[in-house]
Design a protein that fits this description.
Elements: E1 16-17, H1 19-33, H2 36-56, E2 61-62, H3 64-99
Parallel strand pairs: 1-2
Helix pairs in contact: 1-2, 1-3, 2-3
Length: 100
């Protein structure tokens, strides 16, 4: 019987995933699809907290990739929000200039 088998007392299994990392990923996706104003900053916040807790866990927690993806999606969502605001301002100014 090898030490890698599940019946062995030395088998630890994979680390559990951080709930904050999962929340960050879900909020990052929601920030792209639904509401960038609320979800994207929350995705960044939860992602950073998750990465700190994963690093401090000493290998007991996983999900660093999920946390990183949530942070990246959060920043992309904020970028889309800023582009949308700039586009709306340009559209309003162009409409005001042509109506005068």
């Amino acid at each position: 019987m090898s030490y890698q088998e599940q019946g062995s007392p030395y088998y630890q299994g994979p680390p559990s995933s951080s709930g904050e990392a999962t929340a960050s990923l879900i909020l990052g996706i929601c920030g792209l699809l639904i509401c960038s104003l609320i979800c994207s900053p929350l995705a960044i916040m939860y992602g950073k907290r998750a990465r700190r807790s994963i690093a401090a866990s000493g290998g007991r927690l996983g999900g660093d990739g999920q946390a990183t993806a949530g942070i990246v999606l959060g920043w992309i969502g904020i970028g889309f929000l800023i582009l949308g605001i700039v586009a709306a301002i340009v559209f309003i100014l162009a409409a005001a200039a042509t109506s005068s």
